[in-house]
Amino acid sequence: MPMLSDPSKKYKPYPALDLPDRQWPSRRTTKAPIWLSTDLRDGNQALANPMTIEQKTLFFQQLVKCGVKEIEVAYPAASDTDFNFVRMLIEKNLVPDDVWLQVLTPAREDLIKRTIDSVAGAKHAIIHMYNATSPLFRNVVFRNSKEETVALAVKHTKIIRQLTEECSAQTGTVFKYEYSPETFTQTEPDFAIEVCEAVKAAWGKAGPGEDRIIFNLPATVEIGPCNHYADRIEHFCRNITEREKVIVSLHPHNDRGTGIAAAECGLLAGGDRIEGCFFGNGERTGNVDLVNLALNLYSQGIPPNLDFSDIQSVIEVVTQCNDLPVHPRHPYAGELVFTAFSGSHQDAIKKGFEVQRKQHAEAKARGENQYWDMPYLPIDPADLGCSYEAVIRVNSQSGKGGIAYLVKQHLGLDLPRKMQIAFYQVVQDIADREAREMMVDDIVTAFRKTYHFGGPSYQGRLVLKSFEISSEPSVEPDTERSDSQDERRRFDGTILVDGVLRVIKGEGNGPLSALLDGLRTHLDIDLSIREYSEHTLGEGKEARAASYVEVVPPGEGRKAGWWGVGVDSDIAGSGLRAVLSAVNAAIGDRPLPELKLLVGFDKRSSLADVASVVLNALHLELPKRLQASFFEVVQRSVGDKDDDVRVKEVSYDTLIKLFRETYGYEVAPEQSRVSLKSFKMEYLGDGSDSRREINGEIVLDGKVRPLKGQGNGPLSAVLAALHELIEGTFAVREYSEHSIGEGSEVTAASYVELTYTRDEESQKKSAAWGVARDTDITASGLKAVLCAVSKLDFKPRSLVNGSA
Ligand SMILES: CC(=O)SCCNC(=O)CCNC(=O)[C@H](O)C(C)(C)COP(=O)(O)OP(=O)(O)OC[C@H]1O[C@@H](n2cnc3c(N)ncnc32)[C@H](O)[C@@H]1OP(=O)(O)O
Ligand SMILES: CC(C)C(=O)C(=O)O
C-alpha cells in the first residue's frame, strides 16, 4: 500500500498539553541525573537472543566499572535465566555495596512474589512495578476503567510493601519502590498524576532523601517531539504533591529518533533520574542512550559521574553481549565520529590543533584552564581513550591540510605550505588512480618514496655519506658592509651517486649553496634554492633538525620546483640532506656523468675525482691535504710518462697502483726500508695521564732493531724510539684516522704526514705521507708512521756493540 496523500486521515497528532507558563526552555542543566541502566532488562527483552547468564554477568561488571549505581538487572518472573542471574549476583557477592539492583514486575501477585524472592538478601534493591495507564491500553489490553486501573496499581503496591517488609525483616535487604505508569505520554496528564498519588499513598512510606519513591514516566513509545515530553514532565513535577518525597525518573524511547532530546528537555523540566541503555539498545528503535547523554554533559563541562575513559572496551563488551553493532556514525562511539575525510574539515582541524597547542601552553603557564576549542571535534577523542590517528583520513575528498596533519602526526614533520601543496598532488594522484581511501601507511610510504626519506629502503640516487663544512673569508669583501667580512663556505663530502662513492667539493655563501656548487661541478646538476625552512624535532638531547628545501633550475620562472626534506642531529646535515632529497626528485632518472679520470694539462679530472676513485677502490677517505698531494702525484705521473699527451684517461687500476707505491700502502714489508715486526704499548704512571711506552722490534734496512721509547701518546712514543735508531728529527704534521666497515669486520685507517729534519744545522726539512690499515687502531697508526718514514731519505744511526 502506498503512502497516503493525506495522512491526517490515518494518523492523529499527539495530544498537546496546554502549559503556556512552561519554565523548562530557559533552564540549563548543571548536574548529572541519577543514572539507571536497563540494559539487562529493557535492552535484554528487545534482543532476538536474550543474554545468557555469562553475558549478563560480563555486562553487569562493565556497567559497574563505568560507575552506574542503579542497574535494572532482570525481569525475574520472566525466565529462570533472569531469576537465577539475580540470585547468582547476590550469592556470589558480585554487587558492590553502593550499587542498587533493580528488578521489574507487572502488577500481578504471583509474579511480584517471585520478583522479591529474586533479590532477597541483596544489600540494596529497587522493586519496579508497572501497569499501562493510557486510554488505549485501558480499553484494549486491560479492558479496565480508570478506577480499576488505579485499583490495580494500589493493590499491588500494597502487596509489594508487605512482601518487601517481610523480606527486609528476614534478610536485611533495604528496598526502594519504583512505579511506572506505563505509556505515560499517552495517558491523560491529570490521570497519570492521580494514579501516582494513589500509589504514593498506598506505599505510605515516601519521605525525603533516601526514602523518596521513584515515579518513572516513560515515553513507552515516543509519540511526539521533545517539547511534548518536557511539558508533560514539568506538568507532573509541578502537580505531584510532596515533590520532595519523589524522584522523577525519565524513560524515553527513541521511536522518532529524538530520545536524547526528550531526555535532555525532560531533565530541564524537572527530571531527576534517567533510565536508558548503553548505545541505545532497547525495544524497537531503542531506549535513550546513556553514553550519549553522559558525554553530552561532559562536553558542556558537567561531570557525568560515568566513566568512558576506555570507550572501546565498553563497546566491545556491549556489542558482544547484545550481538548488535554500534553504528559507525553513533555519537561519540562510532568508528567514524572523530574522523574527517573532507579537505576543509581536515584543514580546520589541523589548524585547530596547532593553535590549541600554543594556547594550552600559554594557559598552562598562567595556571589557567586549557579549554578544548576545536573545529569539528566537540570533545577530545583522547578523553575516551581514542587516539588521534583516526581523526583525519584521506580519500579523494581530502585536501593538503589533512595530509600534512598525518605527516606531522606520524613523522613529526611540519611541512611548509608550498610543500604541503606539492605532496597533496602526489597523494591525490594515487587516491584518484586507485579510487580508494589512502590509509596512514599509504601516505607515509608515499612521502618516504617521494622524498627519499627514512632509511636505505627509500634512498635516492644521491645519498650523503659524510661531509665537512669549512669557512674561509670571501675573496671579495662586501664593500657595502665594511663592518663585517663575508665568509664563504666550503663543502667537502662524500656522496653515493648511483652506487658509486664520489668525493664532492664546492663553494658558496652557505653550506647548501656550496653543496649545489659541488653538484654542478662534479655531476652537471644545475639547481638553486628558492625556498628553505627548518624546525626542531623532539626535545632535549633527542632534538634533531628538520629542513625543507625547494630547488629550481636557475634563471627559470618555473612555477613549481622540487621539494626535499632532511632530518639530522646537525642543522647543516639536515639542510644538506634536504637539498639531496630535492635534487633526487629533480634529476629523476636522467643519466649523470660517470666517474672518469681524464688527467692532463687541458682537460683535467679534479682532485675530488681522484679521491673518489681511491675511496671506491680502497675505502680510504683521504684527508684534504693528502688528496691534494696525491693529485699532484697523479698529474706528474701522466706528464712523466708521455709529455706529448695533453689529456689522458687514467684507468682506476693504474691510479690505485700509483697510490700504493706512493704511500707504501699495504706493500710487502721487504719492499719498505722500515717495517713493524712486533710491539707492545703500555700506559705509564697511574693512568691519570696519557704517557706511553713502546717496546718492540722493527726491521730497518733489512735488520731487526729493538724499538723502545716513551711519549705523550703512541705516536710520540714511536717517534722517540725512532730517534734512537735514526739520525735527525721526525715530527707529525698531520694525523687522522677513520674506521672502515662495521661490526666485527671493522678496521682502522690511519694517515700521517711526517716531516724530517736530517741535519739540524741546515734545518732542511722533507715531508712524506704514510697510509696504513689494521684491525688494531694503534697498530694502524704505527704502521702509517713507518710507511711515511720509509719514504723519507733518512740516515740510520750506526750500531755500537750490536745495538744503536
Ligand atoms: C513497556 C515494557 O517494556 S513492559 C515489560 C515488558 N517485558 C516483558 O514482557 C518481558 C517479560 N514478560 C514475560 O516473560 C511474560 O510476559 C510474563 C511472564 C510476564 C507473563 O506471561 P503470561 O502470563 O504468559 O502473560 P502474557 O505475556 O500473555 O501477558 C499478558 C497478560 O498480562 C497482563 N499484563 C500485561 N502487563 C501487565 C501489567 N503491567 N500488570 C498486570 N498485568 C499485566 C495482560 O493484561 C495480559 O493479561 P490477560 O492474560 O489476562 O489478558
Ligand atoms: C516498564 C516500563 C517502564 C517500560 O519499559 C516502558 O514503558 O518503556
UniProtKB/TrEMBL annotation:
InterPro entries: 2-isopropylmalate_synth_dimer, AIPM/Hcit_synth_CS, Aldolase_TIM, IPM_Synthase, LeuA-like_post-cat, LeuA_allosteric_dom_sf, LeuA_N_DRE-TIM, PYR_CT. It comes from Gloeophyllum trabeum (strain ATCC 11539 / FP-39264 / Madison 617). Belongs to the alpha-IPM synthase/homocitrate synthase family. LeuA type 2 subfamily. Its EC number is 2.3.3.13. Residues 33-312 form the Pyruvate carboxyltransferase domain. Pathway: Amino-acid biosynthesis; L-leucine biosynthesis; L-leucine from 3-methyl-2-oxobutanoate: step 1/4. NCBIfam families: leuA_yeast, PRK03739.1. Its cofactor is a divalent metal cation. Its main location: mitochondrion. One of its GO terms (cellular component) is mitochondrion. This is 2-isopropylmalate synthase. It catalyses: 3-methyl-2-oxobutanoate + acetyl-CoA + H2O = (2S)-2-isopropylmalate + CoA + H(+). GO terms for biological process: L-leucine biosynthetic process.
